[in-house]
Amino acid sequence: MWKVIKWPLIYFIIQFLLIVIMAYFYIQGGHAIDEFNSFLLDKQLLIVVILGLIFIPFLLMDYKKNYYSSKEKKINIKVLLIFAVLLSLVYNVFAYYINNFTFQTSLFGGNGNILYVLIATGLIGPVIEELIFRGIIYNELKRRITNMAAILITTLFFALTHFNIFQIIYALVLGLILIFVYEKYKDIKAPIILHMASNITTTLFVPLLIKDNFIVNYSIFLIGLIGLFLIKKYTNFFKI
Predict the structure, then answer these.
(1) Do 112 and 230 touch, CB atoms closer than 8 A?
(2) Per-residue exposure over 72-96, b if at least 16 CB sit within 10 Å of its own CB, e if not
């Protein structure tokens, strides 16, 4: 059981310690502690980058040592990228209008520094998450329980690490797809590529949705659905 929860637990502890250290120096700099939350929100992407630089080398070593598969297949990167982009477009248009009519959350309220977001959530975040969830946790669970149970537990765990209702829903869908892609190619690079493409598309596309042009957004939604249908019909992407 320790091997399953080891990396998420260590990640949480290091993140907590990093926040405590930042809070200490923030207060020592003469700032009020009640302003720290705003400061931390502004620096959250920097925290992801720092944690990535710390964790990725160790996660890679653990994965290659204990879970690497010699059955890796050639990855169809082109189809993988197109699928990720189309899926992200379809979901974000759908979630945007559902959010406007129901929850009214701030999920579509802007992305801050676009370069920071791309680096943290488009590049580093997916590598960390794929190595932890699909690379280590999923493979470790498969050694202990049935494949289906391992899929469900890994996907649910992955979804619950996202705190917005729309992110949780998307993470449930994306989590299943990422495991499917991992099993299809037996290569952790495949879900990493898909995850990166999905996050980068979301980062670049969501600000455009703020303009609230229904005709354009609806057209993008339909193009995305048609594209996903064509991928299913004319490629072997959905076949293991």
Answers:
(1) no
(2) eeebbeeebbbbbbbbbbbbbbbbb
- Check: CB of residue 218 under 8 Å from CB of residue 93: yes
CA–CA–CA angle 33, 37, 42 (5° rounding): 125
pLDDT bracket for residue 225 (50, 70, 90): very high
Contact 167, 92 (CB under 8 A): no
Cα–Cα distance for residue pair 44/48, rounded to 1 Å? 7
pLDDT in tens, 5-34: 999 999 999 999 988 898 888 888 877 777
Specify the residue for token string 């299809």: 184
Percent of the chain with pLDDT over 70: 94
Task: Say whether pTM exceeds 0.85.
Answer: yes
Strand, helix or coil at 27? helix
Domain-wise residue ranges, the chain: 2-234
Largest CA distance in the chain: 62
